């Protein structure tokens, strides 16, 4: 019999033998696995049945289990996991900040200008428009939050509140780079609401471009997290593709409308006029206008290359090609930003172009700290939530592809439409700009007089000119820089100069406002600083004339920026008690304002 000490020694010996055996088995398995990995590294070809003759194997249509798994894995990665072998976290941060800049300036401009343009005392009062739309089509034909907000016909509180909230959210995105789908959905609702009651003053192509970009962006940011780099919510590869598809449609639409439009785009002469006749030139526009004709032709050729050929680089099979495509588009937009005041158009166009870059883009190493991102493995409830989100994204992706059919067909139509939508929510739209370029620049100049009679005004040359923000007026006035802030009234005055007064009844309403305004009236926000020649009391008479403007030449010795010549009367002389004026106001459903006007 064994003593207790011997029993203990015996049991310990058995345990050591068992442990040693387990260690040897583990080491053997590790060795074999290491050998297998080395074989795979040296020979990356999939394992196949070597008993099959080579010729027979080449001609066989059978797919091995490994190949089947590779195909299934590929489709799962694209359509279910929706992830790429590349990461796009840095691109997403830049995209969020850029979208924040666009919304900050869009809603800031709306906060200042919307009450004058579409407020309850505005030039095109939104409460009248909403009432007409509701009676004729119902509220869902052009959905807007303002149908459900109070006081739209008595004050601008609701309008200013939405604009202020949008501005604050835009500032948050701009300075933090943090965003989620909830914030973008709120901004999308705000933008849709203002667009659908904005009428003439919100009829620009970039309004719908902002909406489409924001809608796609909802599926590229985390659902609710505000983390800058949320590894649980990488950008969906499907919507990265849609962003590249968007920048391609924007540029191709702009390029094709030019080729089909003005002859000067085909004979390479449009840029000889563009800088002078664009809506709001800046000081750099003046100097670019002075460059030789050969340089202007080169500019047109570059424009055609960027808009008609370079968009296809955004779909390149190699990342270097996509990087080149995105870089060309962004540099082109930066040149447009420098050469004119096109509001937020160029900034919002850069946003989808950013998605040509993954996190390996060379310039990112100068902007971001180098970080390593690991793939997150989901399990349990997280996996089920991820699958549900992927299914929703796949459904929306399919919807966008379906809605894109008409816009894509429009690109190849002889009767191409630009800046229009085929659905009421503006999810997929057509785009284009400057299909025709004006060869001359006319400006509507509004003047007032406070003399007792019209004859006395003319005899004493007492007509004093109103100056509007960033609008060419006095010939010694320096062209301004205002983009991305949008001067909506100034743009509409540019359009009005190309048409007759009968197509612009809002201009009569503007003249009525000026006849009832002093330095404290709301209309002052659309005038330049010191632009109201009647700060203490409104004028008695008002009129509008048409002048032709041209840039002065650098070598002429003229210190002014412009020369101008009188063309004709644009609007007759009005005073508040004019029967003509009262008739127009009654026909449009507008009320005669109180003097002086107050918000």
From TrEMBL:
Family affiliation: Belongs to the lipase maturation factor family.
This protein's name: Lipase maturation factor
Domain Lipase maturation factor 1/2 N-terminal: from-to ranges: 202-360
UniProt subcellular location: Endoplasmic reticulum membrane
Superkingdom of origin: Eukaryota
GO cellular component: a single term: endoplasmic reticulum membrane
Ranges where the record places region Disordered: 35-64
Compositionally biased residues, Polar residues: 36-53
Membrane topology classification: Multi-pass membrane protein
GO biological process: protein maturation
Stretches assigned to the Lipase maturation factor 1/2 C-terminal domain: 427-572
Bilayer-crossing regions: 94-114, 157-175, 182-202, 238-257, 330-355, 391-412
Location, primary (coarse class): endoplasmic reticulum
Keyword terms: Endoplasmic reticulum, Membrane, Transmembrane, Transmembrane helix
Positions with biased composition (Basic and acidic residues): 54-64
Listed Pfam families: LMF1 (PF06762), LMF1_C (PF25179)
Protein role: Involved in the maturation of specific proteins in the endoplasmic reticulum.
Organism (species): Rotaria magnacalcarata
């Amino acid at each position: 019999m064994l003593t207790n000490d011997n029993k203990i020694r015996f049991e310990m010996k058995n345990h050591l033998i068992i442990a040693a055996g387990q260690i040897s088995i583990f080491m053997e398995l590790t060795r074999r696995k290491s050998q297998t990995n080395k074989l795979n590294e040296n020979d990356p070809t999939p394992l196949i049945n070597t008993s099959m003759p080579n010729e027979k194997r080449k001609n066989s249509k059978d797919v091995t289990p490994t190949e089947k798994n590779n195909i299934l894995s590929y489709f799962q990665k694209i359509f279910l996991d929706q992830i790429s072998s590349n990461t796009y976290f840095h691109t997403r941060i830049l995209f969020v900040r850029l979208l924040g800049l666009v919304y900050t300036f869009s809603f800031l401009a709306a906060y200042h200008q919307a009450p004058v343009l579409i407020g309850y005392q505005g030039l095109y009062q939104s409460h009248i428009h909403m009432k007409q739309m509701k009676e004729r089509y119902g509220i869902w034909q052009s959905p807007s939050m303002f149908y459900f907000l109070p006081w739209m016909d008595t004050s601008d509180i609701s309008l200013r509140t939405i604009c202020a909230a949008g501005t604050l959210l835009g500032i948050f995105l701009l300075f933090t780079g943090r965003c989620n789908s909830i914030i973008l959905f709120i901004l999308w609702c705000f933008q849709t609401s203002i667009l659908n009651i904005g009428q003439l003053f919100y009829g620009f192509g970039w309004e719908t471009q902002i909406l489409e970009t924001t809608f796609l962006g909802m599926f590229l940011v985390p659902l609710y997290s505000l983390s800058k780099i949320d590894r649980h919510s990488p950008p969906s590869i499907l919507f990265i593709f849609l962003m590249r598809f968007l920048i391609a449609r924007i540029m191709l639409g702009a390029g094709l409308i030019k080729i089909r439009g003005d002859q000067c785009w085909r004979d390479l002469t449009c840029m000889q006029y563009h800088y002078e006749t664009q809506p709001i030139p800046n000081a750099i526009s003046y100097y670019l206008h002075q460059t030789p004709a050969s340089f202007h032709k080169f500019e047109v050729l570059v424009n055609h290359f960027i808009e008609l050929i370079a968009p296809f680089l955004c779909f390149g099979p190699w990342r270097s090609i996509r990087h080149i495509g995105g870089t060309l588009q962004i540099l082109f937009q930066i040149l447009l930003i420098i050469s004119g005041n096109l509001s937020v158009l160029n900034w919002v166009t850069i946003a989808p172009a950013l998605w040509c870059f993954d996190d390996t883009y060379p310039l990112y190493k100068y902007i971001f700290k180098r970080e390593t991102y690991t793939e997150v493995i989901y399990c349990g409830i997280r996996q089920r939530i991820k699958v549900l989100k992927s299914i929703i994204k796949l459904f929306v992706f399919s919807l966008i592809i379906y809605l894109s059919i008409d816009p894509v067909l429009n690109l190849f139509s002889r009767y191409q439409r630009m800046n229009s939508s085929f659905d009421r929510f503006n999810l997929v739209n057509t785009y284009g700009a400057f299909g025709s370029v004006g060869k001359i620049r006319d400006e509507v100049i509004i003047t007032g007089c406070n003399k007792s009679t019209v004859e006395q005004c003319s005899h004493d040359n007492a007509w004093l000119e109103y100056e509007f923000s960033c609008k060419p007026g006095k010939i010694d006035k320096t062209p301004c820089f205002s983009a991305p802030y949008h001067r909506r009234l100034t743009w509409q005055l540019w359009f009005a100069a190309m048409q007759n007064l009968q197509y612009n009844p809002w201009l009569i309403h503007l003249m009525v406002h000026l006849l009832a305004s002093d330095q404290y009236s709301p209309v002052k926000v659309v005038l330049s600083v010191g632009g109201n020649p009647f700060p203490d009391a409104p004028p008695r008479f008002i009129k509008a004339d048409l002048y032709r403007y041209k840039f002065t030449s650098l070598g002429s010795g003229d210190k002014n920026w412009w020369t101008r010549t009188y063309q004709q009367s644009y609007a007759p002389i009005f005073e508040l008690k004019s029967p003509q004026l009262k008739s127009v106001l009654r026909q449009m459903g507008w009320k005669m304002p109180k003097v002086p006007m107050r918000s």
